[in-house]
């Protein structure tokens, strides 16, 4: 039996729109999501902002009730057996918040240890262990308000695994962390798997999902648009080529014309300082640079290069299809 | 030109917020409608328990003292928002009539103070059975106005300090508390030690409260013109002091690039 | 059982620590009632009733406990929301009531600073001496009032779980409770219809117990009633909280962030 089993999970929010006359509005944040995570897996939920990742994870950690569909974690229903489930799962989210600033890291950990029922003697041992694991040993008596973003994140993880949960849910854990800190964090996350835990990670960083995850589900607009190992997802765009073209000032109409070029499957634009980078995906081996450049006639073009497709390209293709 | 337009439109928005900034009913009603009435009731009953002055004494005193809450808080918020929208700097150095511009900012605050004082006087009085004749009200209105103006001057000083100090809420509350003791709202200056009475006379609201009590008991406006004059003068002094203090701190903050305030 | 006690104790210590370091919740909570105490002292000193000032000092001291609690406790959840810890507290395998109660009790414990500050203020500046005729009931009365006010704060925190404006409602309750619980004004002076409200408020009995402990008279009934009402508030708050959390999870209205 899978550790996490999600079946046609849905979540609708009722909200209001308008300032003077408030009209009710129903927003479907999660529209029928189904996936499963096996024991010991590092599973990634990858998607752009607003895709429904956080809503999904909140349902799995029992903070939110699904509107319909079912989810089981460790065989327990997230709705009916929430209290029992909470003891066995850990929740970590990214960002600056979520800690008591005026207290020391040690006090923060002690408090959450109490909340999660980690008993007296066990507490001291566990706290030592997690501090060691996340690399904060020696700094636990300092107040959290003096911590850097990376340190806070590590403390978050420490807090999340204090009670030795079997499943750990990480919601965008490296957001806003500097590259070095983020790399250390990813290492720690990898260590969790080595310790026998199952991890579900949400992120919008493609390379992070690629580097860390055993399997990935790509989610966009509340639905899963692709699922598999990073290799499998890449294979989806592997027969083909990716061209990168530096341009100076293209607009939507030109992008449209580029998309119409035969064998082109996706065109995305990356805004750089003074210029833009067009990333064009095309199927087949046929030479496609020339027709593309023909469409770009009259626009200043810089470097043109071609490369192997990456997970990012697969992601863009999948997400692009959804919109 | 851009600056002038900006001052005008953003200023209008800020002024609107000063009047209706407590736009959420859940803050407005408790803070500006219910609490002053409760304060009046509290002190009226303490007065009865102590064998102090008449109910009317406490109704008038506390109604006016409470106007310091909107005058201080709204004025401080107004200046803080000017800084947030970065119109404060241009406002201070604008060649076009600084006085009318600042007056424009202060007017909604003064109006707020006036309405709060008048309403709580009416409602508190009603509950306690203290009724004033229509003619009394006609004479009271200018007194309340001068008092609100005077206290708004203190609000400017408070706002200035607020530009430098982080805990503005604490400071505003401290000023309200000081006025509670020294303004004669509940303890006439004659019952305070000499030095405290002296401090009280240098603060806003003190003369206004005395004048209001006289007027509510039937005296004419002419008889209290000395008190009103002094109150107005105090208001001007605090306003001018506050203005210069604001300018000083604003210039200083630019020099030290300390515009960041959490 | 032991675990619950540890949890309550630990939460209480931590939140007390945090509140003590806050200028608004700590410093102002102690200073604010002193303004009112000062005014009250002058009023009674010059009043025609020639009332003794000792009871007034005690009443003013206790006012501070309510001040420390009223705003702070009712906005407890708002604070947690702002810190980002609310989600974590709700996601924990512990009854949220057990997490909230220590917070409310910590706010009323800050009130102990107020009591000391006010009595010192009264003694040093006004020469008011407060005797302690029966130390045990006096001490229990103080503990009782801190406990019952904390419980009342807990009830308020629960009642305003969904509101982002909770602090305003806590603030507006400050003066009414001072008046109705007989801190400075004998309840006999209040209108008839107010008296039943006074009787169901724990602080009323705590005040009487402290009074009796200081000046003589039997306090045991008052102490018992004070604690009993506190427990009743906790029980009711616990019930209410469970219902509200369930509803909030369903409608996603807990606004956890």
Structure characterization notes:
- The complex is a heterotrimer of chains A (323), B (262) and C (257).
- Chain A has 323 residues and is of the alpha/beta class.
- Chain A has 11 helices and 14 strands.
- The relative contact order of chain A is 0.13.
- The longest helix of chain A is centred in the middle third of the chain and has 16 residues, at 179-194.
- Chain A folds into 2 domains: 4-233, P-loop containing nucleotide triphosphate hydrolases (Rossmann fold), CATH 3.40.50.300; 236-322, ACT domain (Alpha-Beta Plaits).
- Chain A starts with a strand and ends with a helix.
- Chain A is globular.
- Chain B is mainly alpha-helical.
- Chain B has 11 helices and no strands.
- Chain B has helices at 2-20, 25-50, 55-66, 68-84, 88-93, 98-128, 134-164, 168-182, 194-201, 206-216, 225-255.
- Chain B is elongated and about 60 Å long.
- The relative contact order of chain B is 0.13.
- The model of chain C has no long low-confidence stretch (mean pLDDT 89).
- Chain C has one domain.
- In chain C, helix 1 (2-20) packs across helix 6 (96-126).
- The radius of gyration of chain C is 18 Å and the shape is elongated.
- The chains are: A alpha/beta (323), B mainly alpha (262), C mainly alpha (257).
- The interface between B and C is medium-sized, with 33 and 37 residues.
Overall 3D form of chain B: elongated
Structural class of chain C: mainly alpha
* Count of domain modules of chain C: 1
Overall radius of gyration of chain B? 19 Å
First and last CA, distance of chain C: 32 Å
Sequence stretches where pLDDT stays below 50 over 5 or more residues of chain C: none
Tally of DSSP helical segments of chain B: 11
In this structure, how is the largest beta sheet of chain B organized? none
Mean of residue pLDDT values of chain B: 86
Most residues in contact, chain pair and counts? B-C, 33 and 37 residues
Q: Which short descriptors sum up this protein?
A:
heterotrimer, A: 323 residues, alpha/beta, Rossmann fold, Alpha-Beta Plaits, 2 domains, 6-stranded mixed beta sheet, 4-stranded antiparallel beta sheet, 11 helices, globular, B: 262 residues, mainly alpha, elongated
């Amino acid at each position: 039996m899978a550790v996490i089993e999600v079946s046609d999970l849905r979540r609708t929010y009722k909200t209001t729109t308008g300032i003077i006359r408030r009209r009710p509005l129903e927003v479907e944040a999660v529209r029928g999501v189904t996936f499963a995570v096996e024991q010991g897996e590092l599973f990634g939920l990858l998607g752009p902002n607003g895709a429904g990742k956080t809503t999904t994870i909140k349902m799995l950690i029992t903070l939110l009730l699904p509107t319909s569909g079912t989810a089981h974690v460790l065989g327990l229903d997230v709705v009916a057996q929430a209290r029992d489930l909470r003891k066995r799962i850990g929740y970590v989210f990214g960002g600056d918040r979520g800690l008591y600033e005026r207290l020391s890291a040690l006090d923060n950990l002690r408090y959450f240890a109490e909340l999660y029922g980690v008993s007296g003697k066990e507490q001291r041992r566990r706290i030592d262990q997690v501090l060691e694991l996340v690399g904060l040993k020696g700094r636990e008596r300092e107040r959290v308000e003096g911590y850097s973003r990376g340190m806070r994140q590590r403390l978050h993880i420490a807090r999340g695994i204090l009670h030795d949960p079997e499943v750990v849910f990480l919601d965008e854990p490296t957001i806003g962390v500097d590259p070095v800190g983020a790399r250390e964090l990813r290492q720690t996350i990898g260590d969790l798997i080595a310790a026998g835990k199952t991890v579900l990670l949400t992120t919008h960083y493609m390379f992070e999902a690629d580097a860390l995850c055993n399997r990935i589900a790509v989610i966009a607009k509340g639905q899963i648009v692709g699922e598999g190992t990073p290799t499998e997802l890449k294979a989806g765009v592997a027969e083909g080529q990716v061209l990168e073209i530096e341009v100076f000032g293209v607009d939507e109409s030109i992008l449209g014309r580029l998309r119409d070029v035969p064998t082109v499957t996706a065109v995305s634009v990356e805004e750089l300082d003074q210029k833009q980078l067009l990333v064009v995906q095309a199927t087949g081996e046929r030479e496609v640079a020339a027709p593309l450049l023909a469409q770009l006639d009259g626009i200043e073009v810089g470097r043109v290069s071609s490369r192997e497709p990456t997970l990012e390209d697969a992601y863009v293709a999948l997400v692009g299809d959804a919109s | 030109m851009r600056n002038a337009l900006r001052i005008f439109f953003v200023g209008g928005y800020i002024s609107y917020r000063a009047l209706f900034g407590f736009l959420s009913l859940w803050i407005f009603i408790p803070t500006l409608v219910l609490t002053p009435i409760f304060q009046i009731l509290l002190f009226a009953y303490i007065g009865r328990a102590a064998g102090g002055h008449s109910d009317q004494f406490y109704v008038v005193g506390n109604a006016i003292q409470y106007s310091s809450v909107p005058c201080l808080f709204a004025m401080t918020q107004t200046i803080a928002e000017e800084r947030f929208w970065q119109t404060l700097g241009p406002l201070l150095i604008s060649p076009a009539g600084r006085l009318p511009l600042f007056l424009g900012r202060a007017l909604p605050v003064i109006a707020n103070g006036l309405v709060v004082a008048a309403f709580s006087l009416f409602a508190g009085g009603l509950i306690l059975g203290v009724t004033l004749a229509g003619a009394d009200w006609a004479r009271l209105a200018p007194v309340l106005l001068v008092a609100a103006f005077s206290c708004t001057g203190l609000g400017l000083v408070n706002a200035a300090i607020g530009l430098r100090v982080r805990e503005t809420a604490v400071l505003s509350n401290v000023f309200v508390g000081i006025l509670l003791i020294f303004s004669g709202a509940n303890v006439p200056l004659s019952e305070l030690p000499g030095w405290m009475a002296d401090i009280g006379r240098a603060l806003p609201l003190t003369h206004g409260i005395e004048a209001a009590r006289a007027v509510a008991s039937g005296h004419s406006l002419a008889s209290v013109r000395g008190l009103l004059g002094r109150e107005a003068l105090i208001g001007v002094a605090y306003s001018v002091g506050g203005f210069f203090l604001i300018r000083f701190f604003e210039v200083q903050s630019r020099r030290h690039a300390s515009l960041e305030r959490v | 059982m032991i675990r619950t006690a540890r949890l309550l104790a630990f939460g209480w210590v931590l939140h007390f620590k945090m509140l003590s370091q806050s200028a608004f919740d700590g410093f102002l909570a102690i200073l604010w009632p002193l303004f009112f105490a000062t005014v009250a002292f002058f009023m009674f000193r010059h009043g025609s009733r020639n009332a003794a000032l000792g009871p007034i000092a005690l009443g003013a001291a206790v006012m501070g406990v309510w001040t420390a609690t009223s705003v702070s406790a009712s906005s407890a959840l708002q604070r947690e929301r702002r810190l980002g810890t609310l989600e974590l507290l709700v996601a924990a395998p512990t009854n949220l009531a057990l997490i909230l109660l220590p917070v409310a009790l910590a706010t009323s414990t800050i009130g102990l600073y107020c009591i000391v500050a006010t009595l010192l203020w009264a003694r040093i500046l006004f020469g008011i001496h407060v005797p302690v005729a029966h130390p045990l009931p006096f001490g229990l009365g103080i503990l009782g009032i801190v406990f019952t006010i904390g419980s009342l704060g807990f009830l308020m925190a629960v009642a305003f779980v969904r509101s982002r404006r909770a602090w305003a409602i806590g603030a507006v309750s400050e003066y009414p409770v001072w008046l109705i619980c007989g801190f400075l004004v004998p309840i006999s002076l209040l209108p008839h219809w107010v008296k039943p409200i006074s009787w169901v408020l724990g602080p009323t009995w705590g005040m009487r117990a402290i009074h009796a402990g200081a000046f003589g008279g039997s306090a045991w009934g008052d102490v018992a009633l004070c604690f009993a009402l506190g427990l009743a508030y906790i029980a009711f708050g616990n019930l209410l909280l469970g219902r509200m959390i369930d509803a909030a999870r369903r409608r996603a209205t807990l606004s956890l962030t």
